[in-house]
Amino acid sequence: MPNLLTRRLALLTEDANRALLGGLRGIERETLRVDHAGHLASTPHPIALGSALTHPEITTDYAEALLEFITPAEADIAVTIQQLDTVHRHAYSRLGDELLWSQSMPGQLPAEQDIEIANYGSSNMGMLKHVYRRGLALRYGKAMQCIAGIHYNYSLDEGLWPLLASHESASAASARDVQSASYLAAIRNFRRYSWLLMYLFGASPALASGFLGGRAHKLDTLSDDTLYLPYATSLRMSDLGYQNDAQSGLRPHENSLDDYVNALTHAVNDPYAPYEALGTRKDGEWRQLSTNVLQIENEYYSTIRPKRVIRTGERPIQALCLRGVQYIEVRCMDVDPFEPVGISLPTGRFLDAFLLFCALDESAPISNEQSACHTANFARTVKEGRKPGLTLRRDGEEISLQAWGEELLARIAPVAALLDARHGGTEHADSLAAQAAKLADPDATPSARVLRELRASGGSFAAFGLRQSERHAAFFRAQPPTAEQSAYFDQLAFDSLAEQRAMEAAPQGSFDDYVASYRASTLCSHT
Question: Glutamate--cysteine ligase domain location, by residue (predicted)?
């Protein structure tokens, strides 16, 4: 009997069903504002870009200088990337002399106390976002708040899941529950295979030595100001990135939505002794939202998340509880330093094929032992992915990364062909061929290319990052936005500033009550 993937592909090849391969794509790209020496910008978020609190497409993430560009969701990743290009061009038309940093890892950072945490104004909602970031600074350090990535938001047509269920199951589960379970199954497959993305697209094998702030490490020295690992793909996604002891034991179960929500609900409600010792206030000023394992669920630093668009005042856990999973957010992608917008169209095409494969392939529940194995494979790849002869663990046995990768590409190939049949052309298959070349030759990977560029120019990560940032700036400034595009973004900026002013002028209760109310909203029909 054909396996599940083969049966589902056959079903989706039928003309009546091919439209269900649509869905939506969106990108969130983070990038630091820096000056012409490559140093972190000390200026506030540019008012010409609007309000970081209320602007739908241009905001900040953790640090005040860490811009985040958010595209609207689109049916074709080519349109998404074009929109990302447009927002970059607009930003450059309003940034003055500042540059957008081209790397995931920051360059030369100022002293910890001189890194400004993102500000969102005086409204209770704005203060909640700011105090949350104060807590992150307390728990992880401010340098961590200067790391940038690419988040890839992905959904499939909501008619797909009932179609598959009607051919596979006699279950009386609701459409919402079928969809949630299907996205969780895709997430489990992503956990199994996401090491491949780090090998193919990881682009942070080196970092500025000052980033570690004197912390112990096992990195090699490339130059006076640069540390690296010779076979690393993504130090950003290693244990040098956004991780700490409190989260080390946090492994939300992705076998069901209930399990996932329960795990995060406990994490945002269970005290953590070292954080309790710090308290929520110091000298009458809020320093973190809670003393629990997580202040809010977004603090859980995962490679992928089940998501739903939230309503005003609602928390992510609550939205998932009430209305189920709407899309998934891939969070492990490094900024590509060779692409002006941080990601290429072929990468987007491959991600679409990879994620559709994850959604359609068989996906058994994951045991705690298997989860640890998937985590170990990922960790091995980000630190040693290009090491000759590197093996990963699969079903209790070692297998070479190359061999497993080639098997996966062969299994994804019919998915790419199905997408090409729907879109016309061969872009998905072409992207797979480009990834096969990287598996055959580790020197063709972005991480290897970064190290070659570093070695060819004195080995300085900061100098390489600045050079790429200047190249990208010249690219965008050579073709400024059209008058229509500028008017669109200027109107968004004007409206967002007006919205923030209205929020701040409206009657508000005390911030203490607001925090208490927000935290209480985590309560679901789960224990």
Answer: 12-379
